[in-house]
Amino acid sequence: MALENSVIQDKLTSTFGNDVFDFDPTKDMLTFEVSPDIITALLLFLKNDETLRFNFLTTMCGIHYPDNDVERQFAMVYQMHNWIDNVRIRIKTFLNGENPEIKTVTTIFDCANWMEREAYDFYGINFIGHPQLKRILNMDEMVSFPMRKQFPMEDSGRTDKDDRFFGRTVTNQPL
User: Fold this and answer.
1) Which domains can be identified in the chain, with CATH numbers?
2) In what order do the strands lie in the sheet with 74-82?
3) Which of 7, 58, 117, 139 has CA 20 to 30 A from 145's CA?
4) Are 148 and 67 in contact (CB under 8 A)?
5) Radius of gyration (Cα) for the chain, nearest Å?
6) pTM to 2 decimals?
7) Are the C-beta atoms of residues 85 and 5 closer than 8 Å to each other?
8) 138 Cβ contact partners less than 8 Å away, ≥ 6 residues apart
């Protein structure tokens, strides 16, 4: 018998109560939100429960929502896969914009190591307890986090990136 979304939702709400909410089954993947302080307990439960068996952390990523309230300016999204029943779920948790931090899940899934380093490198999200939280793709000397929305898309001083050179001319602007 396949693992149904209702079974997942019932198990999570009976175990975590109001810390798990906003269940949405659209697009064939159950999505829900959790409080950031229970993320490690939740992922451990999803992995070890003999009915749920979400034993694979497919991906995790950061998101920046600068227009949200300060308490919800950053998000971490986790996607997990139950190989046995071939079921996937998506978990969202929102973080404070002034101090985006959350507990590491590297103690549960080794693969989270580089994904957390990437979220730190690009968004500045601090993973409490991470064994080696440092930049993974950008230079160590970099002081900004390039995926934050306030980070400029292009260096305005570069002349080789001028739209006019690529046929995208602006009216009334000389070449």
Assistant:
1) 5-105 (3.30.460.80)
2) 20-24, 30-34, 87-95, 74-82, 56-64
3) 58
4) no
5) 20
6) 0.85
7) no
8) 121, 122, 146
